[in-house]
Design the sequence.
C-alpha cells in the first residue's frame, strides 16, 4: 500500500513565487508517518516548497487541513479524486467544521489521528472506509516518535519541533485550540519527550505545545527531564506563569530561553470580552514582564486587535508598550473568527461577518479583516496592524530594544538571535500580507529531463 501525505500551502500573490520565509517542519506529518506499519510506503509532499505529482500512482492521499489552507486543500483533493484516488482529510479545520470538509474527502479524521489510524488503514485496505473517524477525548498521548526522515532534503528552518502536549486548559473565546481540544490538555510522558529530543541530536528546539504551562505540575516534570540535556528551547506559555518563580527557574535551568506570551490586549474591557482577564488578574503586565526579565527569559508578545474597544489609540498604545518594555519580538494581528469558536458564533449572530465562510472566498487574502469591528472599519483595522508591525520592526525600535542586557542581549548568542529574527521580521513585514488564499504555488518540477510548472487556481 502506498500513502501520500500532503501539507498544503496557504496561497501566493499573483505573479509572484511562493513565500519561502519562516518554513518550519510540519511536525504533524512526521507523527502521521510514524503511525504507518512497515508494509506501507509513505510519500510526503510539502506544497509550500515542491510540486505535487498528481499523476504518480498512490492508493491513498492524506491532507492536513487548516482554515487558511482549506481552499488549497480542497483543490488538491479534487485533483486526486478526479484521478480516482481516495482522499482522507484531517487537521484542525476538519475538527472545527467537519460537515464542510466531508464534502471534499472520502473520509475525515476529527481530533487526533493516533487513536483511529490503525482502524482507518485496515478499512482503507479492505475498501470499507467510514466517512468519519473520531479521535477526540482525554488520554495520554503515548510514546509516538515522529518520523522526521520524511523531511530529508528540504530547506526547513534550523530548529527542531517537538510536542509534549496538545490543547490548553483555558477558554479564550477566539481560540481554535480550545474549540478543538475542549479546554483540556493531553500529555506524552515527559521522559519520552526528553529521549526523543536527545535522539534527534539537535541542540535547539521549539516545543510546539499550545500552552506549555497550562498544567504547571506537568511543566515541572518536563523541566526535570530536560535539565540534564544541555539544550536550548523556546515555547508558548500563558502569562500566569510569571507568578510562579520556581517554575520559571526550572524552565530556565532546563534550557528555556524565551516564551511566546499571548498578551492579546492592553485594554481591560477587551481582555474581559475575550475571556482572558486572568492575564492581569494576579499581576500587571509590567510586573509579569519584570519577572520574565529577572529570569533572563526573552518574551515574544502577541497582540490581537479588533475587539470592541480597539481603535487607533489602543493600537498605538500597544506598540508603545511593546517598545517601552523591550519585547524581544511582537506580533500585531487582527482578530480572526475561526469556525467553531465562540467568537465566530457571536459575530455571526450579530451579523458582523462580512462572509460567513470567509476562508472559501477565492478573492480572500491573508491580512483581510473579515468582520465589522465596532470602532474601526475593516480597512482601518488592517492598516493598523500593518502600521504596528512597521513601527515595532522599524530601525529605531530594533535598535532601542537591543540594549536589554537581562534578556534580549543577555549573551552573544541571544544577541545574534535577536538581530537575526528582528531583521528578518523587518524585511518580511509585507511578504505574507495579501497572499491570495488557495492560489497554487508555482513550483517547478523536473521529470525525465522536462520542466513542468503546476500553476492552477484553487477552489
Ligand atoms: S491561553 Fe492561549 S492556547 Fe489557551 S485558550 Fe487562551 S489563547 Fe488558546
Sequence:
Amino acid at each position: 500500500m502506498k500513502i501520500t501525505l500532503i501539507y498544503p500551502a496557504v496561497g501566493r500573490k499573483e505573479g509572484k513565487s511562493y513565500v519561502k520565509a519562516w518554513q518550519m517542519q510540519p511536525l504533524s506529518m512526521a507523527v502521521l508517518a510514524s503511525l504507518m506499519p512497515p508494509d506501507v510506503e509513505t510519500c510526503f509532499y510539502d506544497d509550500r516548497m515542491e510540486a505535487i505529482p498528481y499523476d504518480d500512482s498512490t492508493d491513498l492521499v492524506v491532507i492536513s487541513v487548516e482554515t487558511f489552507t482549506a481552499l488549497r486543500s480542497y483543490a488538491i483533493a479534487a485533483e486526486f479524486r478526479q484521478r480516482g484516488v481516495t482522499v482522507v482529510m484531517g487537521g484542525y479545520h476538519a475538527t472545527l467544521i467537519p460537515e464542510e470538509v466531508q464534502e471534499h474527502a472520502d473520509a475525515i479524521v476529527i481530533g487526533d489521528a493516533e487513536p483511529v489510524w490503525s482502524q482507518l488503514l485496515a478499512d482503507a485496505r479492505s475498501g470499507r472506509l467510514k466517512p468519519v473517524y473520531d479521535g477526540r477525548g482525554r488520554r495520554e498521548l503515548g510514546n509516538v516518535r515522529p518520523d522526521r526522515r520524511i523531511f530529508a532534503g528540504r530547506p526547513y528552518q534550523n530548529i527542531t519541533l517537538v510536542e509534549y502536549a496538545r490543547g490548553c486548559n483555558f477558554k479564550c473565546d477566539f481560540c481554535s485550540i480550545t474549540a478543538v481540544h475542549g479546554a483540556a490538555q493531553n500529555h506524552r510522558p515527559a521522559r519520552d519527550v526528553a529521549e526523543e529530543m536527545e535522539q534527534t541530536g539537535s541542540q535547539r528546539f521549539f516545543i510546539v505545545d499550545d500552552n506549555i504551562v497550562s498544567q504547571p505540575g506537568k511543566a515541572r516534570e518536563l523541566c526535570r527531564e530536560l535539565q540534564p540535556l544541555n539544550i536550548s528551547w523556546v515555547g508558548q506559555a500563558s502569562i500566569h506563569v510569571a507568578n510562579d518563580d520556581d517554575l520559571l527557574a526550572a524552565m530556565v535551568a532546563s534550557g528555556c530561553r524565551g516564551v511566546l506570551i499571548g498578551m492579546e490586549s492592553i485594554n481591560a474591557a477587551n481582555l474581559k470580552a475575550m475571556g482572558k482577564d486572568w492575564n492581569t488578574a494576579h499581576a500587571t503586565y509590567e510586573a509579569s514582564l519584570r519577572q520574565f526579565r529577572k529570569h533572563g527569559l526573552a518574551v515574544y508578545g502577541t497582540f490581537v486587535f479588533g475587539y470592541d474597544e480597539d481603535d487607533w489609540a489602543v493600537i498605538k498604545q500597544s506598540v508603545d508598550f511593546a517598545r517601552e518594555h523591550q519585547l524581544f519580538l511582537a506580533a500585531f494581528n487582527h482578530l480572526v473568527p475561526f469556525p467553531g469558536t465562540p467568537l465566530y458564533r457571536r459575530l455571526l449572530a450579530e451579523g458582523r461577518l462580512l462572509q460567513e465562510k470567509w476562508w472559501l472566498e477565492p478573492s480572500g487574502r491573508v491580512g483581510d479583516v473579515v468582520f465589522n469591528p465596532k470602532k474601526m472599519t475593516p480597512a482601518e483595522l488592517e492598516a493598523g496592524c500593518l502600521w504596528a508591525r512597521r513601527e515595532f520592526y522599524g530601525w529605531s525600535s530594533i535598535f532601542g530594544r537591543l540594549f536589554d542586557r537581562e534578556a534580549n542581549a543577555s549573551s552573544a548568542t541571544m544577541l545574534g538571535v535577536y538581530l537575526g529574527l528582528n531583521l528578518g521580521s523587518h524585511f518580511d513585514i509585507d511578504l505574507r500580507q495579501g497572499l491570495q488564499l488557495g492560489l497554487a504555488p508555482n513550483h517547478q518540477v523536473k521529470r525525465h529531463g522536462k520542466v513542468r510548472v503546476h500553476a492552477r487556481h484553487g477552489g
Residues 446-459 have pLDDT under 50 and may be disordered.
